[in-house]
Amino acid sequence: MPEPSAPAIPEKLYGVIGHPLTQTLSPLLHNWGFARLGIHAAYLAFPTPPERLEAFIRAVRALPIAGVSITIPHKEAVMPFLDGVSDAAKAASAVNTLVWEDGRLMGHNTDLTGFVAPLLERLESLALKRALVLGAGGAAKAVLAGLEQLGIADVVVANRSLERAEKLAARFNARAVAWEERVDVCADLVVNATPMGMTGKALDESPLPPGYWKPGHVAYDLIYNPRETLFLRQAREANAQTIDGLTMFAAQGAAQFKLWTGRDLPLDEVHELLARTLYT
Ligand code: NAP
User: Fold this and answer.
1) From ligand 1's centre to the CA of 230, what distance in Å?
2) Which of these is catalytic: 75, 129, 141, 167?
3) Which residue minimizes the CA distance to atom 17 of ligand 1?
4) Residue nearest to atom 3 of ligand 1 (CA)
């Protein structure tokens, strides 16, 4: 019988913190990436309740932890414990990635990078003048920062609670409208940043009626489970273009991986891996 070969010992440790941390795809994505590119590293899930956040960051400084993904509910709360944050993280007032830079623990925001990536690819073929953002939570902040980065000046935010929409809109020089008025806003790009349409009890919901869509509109849903939400299906059936949340998730993960390793992941393979895991 052949001698089993010695396993490669990970030289670097990465991980994700959040609370609860039950359905994260990040360990799969990053461990696959390390194996795919022959990098000796490991990525773990570190479930961390809010009261343990500060202690966790102290541990990152003490242990050989080379990078961390940050998810709900820590994206804003982590900022005071860092040595600095990138312009994108400042713009989105949220951090989803920790990276060591010249001995300083820095916060970045690759949700913004991931949101912008599929739009950048299509920017030349699309004439995006007005965007409507549905929702005003954590993800919507990255969306508004991304739209600002893309130079889309006419942005309207609609949210169930108008006060939250107004607060977010004011930060980004956008306009807030009441939730009931969202259907009256004619926008060429509509972003769903609510959980309406997500697998579970909201699966049959859409934040817009099917009659809203016109050919040439772009529907962008941040939800990635299911891959095609009711919002996206109705848009597609009306000959609008669609961008799904998996595309954003894959792009934000690849951007994180690049910050940590300097290496590019093959995005088509990342898509395939995530789609296989989520939808089969
Ligand atoms: P969040 O901070 O909890 O915000 C949720 C937003 O949705 C709030 O504005 C909330 O309105 C609104 N909302 C919730 N239920 C609603 C309903 N039944 N009807 C109308 N509005 C409703 O969540 P988040 O972190 O921003 O996440 C939003 C979505 O983006 C989630 O589906 C998440 O999975 C997805 N996401 C995807 C990615 C990706 O990489 N693809 C990354 C981040 C987030 P109120 O303010 O009135 O409560």
Assistant:
1) 16
2) 75
3) 196
4) 137
Q: Is 271 exposed, middle or buried (CB count within 10 Å of its CB: 0-12, 13-18, 19+)?
A: middle
- 113-243 shares the fold of 12-108+247-279: yes
pLDDT over 80 (residue 101): yes
CA of 278 to the centre of ligand 1 (A): 20
Q: What is the reported pLDDT for 3?
A: 74
Distance 162 CA to ligand 1 centre (A): 14
The residue extents of the domains of the chain are 12-108+247-279, 113-243
pLDDT at 18 over 80: yes
The span from the CA of 8 to the CA of 14, in Å, is 16
For 188-216, the pLDDT digits (tens) are 999 999 999 999 999 999 999 999 999 98
Active site (annotated) includes residue 167: no
From ligand 1's centre to the CA of 58, what distance in Å? 30
Q: Residue 88: phi, psi to the nearest 5?
A: -65, -40
For 163-181, the pLDDT digits (tens) are 999 999 999 999 999 999 9
- What value, to the nearest 5°, has the Cα angle with vertex 226 and ends 223 and 231? 65
Ligand 1 closest atom vs CA 161: 47
Number of the ligand 1 atom closest to the C-alpha atom of 252: 40
In words, the CATH class of domain 113-243 is alpha beta
Amino acid, single-letter form, for residue 178: A
Class for domain 12-108+247-279, per CATH? alpha beta
**Residue 8 scores a pLDDT above 90:** no
Helix and strand totals (H; E) in the chain:
9, 12
